[in-house]
Amino acid sequence: MSESIKALTMPKWGLSMKEGKVASWLMQEGTSISPGNEVLEVETEKISSAVESSEGGVLRRIVAQEGETLPVGALLGVIAGANDTSEAIDAFVAEFQKNYVPPADDDHDSGPKTQVIEVKGRAIRYLRQGDGGTPLILIHGFGGDLNNWLFNQESLAAKRTVISFDLPGHGQSSKQVGNANFGELTQVVYDVMDALSVPKAHLAGHSMGGAIAIDMALAHPGRVASLTLIAPAGLGPEINGGYIDGFIEATGRRDIKPHLEQLFANAELVSRQMINDILAYKRLDGVDAALRALRDKIFPGGKQATVLREKLGSLSMPIQVIWGEGDAIVPAKQAQGLPASVKVHVLKGAGHMPQMEAAAEVNKLIEAQLG
Amino acid sequence: MARKITYQQAINEALSQEMSRDPRVIIMGEDVAGGAGTDGEDEAWGGVLGVTKGLYKKFGDRVMDTPITESAFIGAAVGAATAGLRPVAELMFIDFMGVCLDQIFNQAAKFRYMFGGKAETPVVIRTMYGAGFRAAAQHSQCLYPVFTHIPGLKVVMPATPYDAKGLLIQAIRDNDPVIFCEHKVLYTLEGDVPEEPYTIPFGEASVVREGKDVTIVTLGRMVHMATEAADNLAKQGIKCEVIDLRTTSPMDEDTILESVENTGRLVVVDEAHPRCNIATDVSALVADKAFDSLKAPIKMVTGPHVPVPFSDVLEDLYIPNAAKIEAAVRLVMGKKN
């Protein structure tokens, strides 16, 4: 069997994905593909996104038809050289299907698992994937959790250790936010790095997590190898206070949906499952108080209390800023006029969550900076 | 952290966490401690099926075994609630409501209204319902429609471990009387449940399957029958939207109506006897408020109007199942079978 024949399979996005539906093929049989090209669209209960090819070659065979729902790891298509015979591809498909075992329904041992560490009296949930290199730490934003990186972490972990975690007050970490200011949250990043024996890391922060990453780099420059700031807070006073208040005050599906839709350029990405997951989080004891405390300290009166923009120029590690052009939460115009040493990428067709809406581009930019 | 526990463990955890949080929360009922005052305290059984197991050891006299007299201890729980405690009383089987109904419907349910809004009655009555346990006609009824009928009571019907914990914590924190109905066949059902306390508001249905062809409104154990049917039908190209009401009072009318407006077809599945049950109630709502959206007659799937049989064979025939739900869906889709 030719080594140039490769399987394109159903990806696993996030920890709970079991199956996905083939929404549409973006490429036809016979198209040449480079690694990182988006080949098809897949929908899950939570979200839809494009599947990238990690291989280069020619899309020789489309196996999964549009509308089909298939388990994680199932064969979607075959990428091979232009010279591989169709008999060889038939044989590859037959061999794959013969050996393929779909993951069991209650298969909790498959795939990466989150863990919990105790950091200064707080339980912090984290997910470590990949191995080697200077680790990359992913810091989510206000109201988010480590699942905000579901399209990024696995892909980025191919070359290095990647750690995501839930900030205090978020996800499945402790809901105690202490002083609820950047100093407090930055100290948590520092402590998590210590607890996980990470002397130095690349930091990628989204929104409020971006400001935490900047603050961490300012406070402990020796421990930060580079900064990737995605739709970051901390670069200007403007922020959509209506979104933050709306997210906090909403108690049900109908009232939270319009607020969540502001996060994305394509509002249809807000699925029922995404809303349910966020409501379930908001209904945990302690979350409401934590979010209000963070809002009052970090975004009081619909403004950002801390603007670190002027201090970026004093940092010597590589810094890049990635913004969605249609960001309705933190305006993309804050990407303008930054020090020349800061690389700026404004992505078309993305809103406040470019790491989800333009995952392939964001992953490529992070890879490029980390080398 | 979320991890898998059973429906029964979820209820036990909700009770334990609320008792730790609020000293006013007490538990009372027949054998809820079980073995109290004997040498067997450590092995205290904790209710007829062990749902409150371990709580007596943790909370001592705040878990009170009562005499076998529902009229007395349900009345005592209602009285304690008006006097400032937050009792969780266990009416072992819902079938026993007859002997303590006055305390519930004519006392607990009325206080807020008859005392000009000045009285609160934060009592929770946990009770087991449902067929499938080979327990015959006096221990297998649904009867939640009776409580749903009474203004002033909130009626909760969790179908999953996640909902059981969140709805019970909400029930304990609620300032009105709540009837919390637990299907005994669901006690061993496992599901993801966060370790931390959390609440689920009353009157918010859960859409457990999304679909455009038929709306299936259901509750309690029937949620699982309906999702099984929906999964089978999806393979035949019929997409069902399955709505778990979660609470019958208050009831989430908006979610039902929005769904029927999208699908144009309604099947209601209810384990209770077919006359004046939740299925008739939901059907009436849709006929009244969304009639113009309907493309087909409403179909109800319920047990027959007879007491639950003792014979295994007959009991299995009595309970609605996925096959009966599938047949009803095909009927409203205009298919012969």
Tell me what the structure shows:
The complex is a heterodimer of chains A (371) and B (337). With 371 residues, chain A is α/β, with parallel strands linked by helices. Chain A folds into 2 domains: 6-99, RNA polymerase II/Efflux pump adaptor protein, barrel-sandwich hybrid domain (OB fold (Dihydrolipoamide Acetyltransferase, E2P)), CATH 2.40.50.100; 115-370, Alpha/Beta hydrolase fold, catalytic domain (Rossmann fold), CATH 3.40.50. Chain A has 10 helices and 16 strands. Chain A has helices spanning 86-99, 153-156, 182-195, 208-219, 241-249, 253-261, 272-282, 287-298, 354-357, 359-370; strands spanning 6-9, 19-25, 32-33, 38-43, 48-52, 57-62, 69-71, 75-80, 115-119, 122-129, 136-139, 162-165, 201-206, 224-230, 319-324, 342-347. Chain A is globular, with a radius of gyration of 21 Å. Chain B is of the alpha/beta class. Chain B has 2 domains: 2-194, Thiamin diphosphate (ThDP)-binding fold, Pyr/PP domains (Rossmann fold), CATH 3.40.50.970; 206-332, Rossmann fold (3-Layer(aba) Sandwich). In chain B, 35% of the residues lie in helices and 19% in strands. Chain B contains 12 helices and 14 strands. Chain B has helices at residues 7-21, 55-59, 70-82, 101-108, 111-114, 144-148, 161-173, 222-235, 253-263, 278-289, 312-318, 322-332; strands at 2-6, 25-29, 63-65, 86-93, 124-129, 154-156, 178-183, 190-194, 206-209, 214-218, 240-244, 247-249, 266-269, 299-301. In chain B, the strands form 3 sheets. Chain B has a 7-stranded mixed sheet, with helices on both faces. A 5-stranded mixed sheet of chain B has the order 9-11-10-13-14, sandwiched between helices. The longest helix of chain B is centred in the N-terminal third of the chain and has 15 residues, at 7-21. The termini of chain B are far apart.
